[in-house]
Amino acid sequence: MLDLDRLAEALAGEPRYGGRPLAPLTDKGLAHDHVRLPGSGLLLRIPKQSQFGYAAADNLAYQAACFERVAASGHGPRLDGVIAPGPGLPMGALAVEEIAGRPAVLPSDLPALAEALAAVHALGLPPADKRPPLEDHEDPVAGALAEIRFQAGYLGRAEDLDLETARLLRAELAWAEAFAAEAAGHAQPRRLVLTDTHPGNFLVRPDGRAVIVDLEKALYGAPAIDLAHATVFTSTTWDLESRAELTVEEVAGFYQRYLEAAGPEAAGSLRPWLLPLRRILALRALTWCVLWSVEHRRERRDLAASAGRDWAAGRSDEALIAHVAGRVAEYLRPATVEAMGREAAALGQLL
Q1: What SS3 class is residue 275?
Q2: Where is pLDDT greater, at 26 or 111?
Q3: How far apart are CA 310 and CA 200, in angstroms?
Q4: Contact of 155 with 164, CB cutoff 8 Å
Q5: In angstroms, rounded to a whole number, what is the distance separating the alpha carbons of residues 19 and 36?
Q6: How do strand 79-83 and strand 102-103 relate by DSSP bridges?
Q7: Is-contact 140 221, C-beta < 8 A?
Q8: Is the pLDDT confidence value at 185 over 90?
Q9: In the chain, what are the domains?
Q10: Which of 47-51, 65-69, 100-104, 331-335 has the lowest mean pLDDT?
């Protein structure tokens, strides 16, 4: 849990950020604490863990690059500075622009989210030597599948997992493996993508422009995965402030608005990938739930700690952990998995 006294001590040697009042925000995420610096227009993002398994300094460098690159779209907070790891801040912190806005309201804010994603994806693909330190998936489907395979390795260790859910997920994994093999022989759209685009990660400014404020997972990969993550059931019902169950028609409208904003050329290259990568994203989300259900129950999380990840409740508010546990249990019900599959099939009739 965040210790404000230790944080104040850690910031004392930082001329730009030390000596200011500290106003922590409600704990809403497993990966970061957020602390306002009132009067400065800045927010501290303090990692609890590295979700990519990086060492502290590398994790900060990665996240700083994410903020710098996404800010060029006009839909991400400005990076103000990097505070190196040290006593009281073992994983360091980023100081970023505090966005004055409200949580996204669904479905009315779906067009704003679509336009924000289109603007980020329009930044294009820089030369290969300009992409590090961000991950660069030359084959975006294979890159997504690698994460899914790792998470699916927990299927046999999830003692409470319904057998039908396990069967459904293994069947989807078999489909994903076959699709990835086929996709490897085709040119795939690649862009700067955000990876974690559930609606709770957006704020909407008073002028209606959506800003994505959680950027530590950006990479070069498949834009269709961002679109799926913004609108699947596991995303739209994750965050209490933006929670909504979308109709298939509302989801189709989101995709159509994105394709209009992206323009004819981008839309044409993306269309064949929209539905299969929605299935890939759903499988990624559901296998993550399996991983979390195993890891957060372990008395000793040696595997997670060695990878720089720790899903332990001790790093987050108890209410947040209870919320995540409730969402994971709902998402891993066979009925939920089946309903997500039916939604994908119905969406195919509208796009």
Answers
A1: helix
A2: 111
A3: 22
A4: no
A5: 13
A6: unpaired
A7: yes
A8: no
A9: 4-97 (3.30.200.20), 102-347 (3.90.1200.10)
A10: 47-51
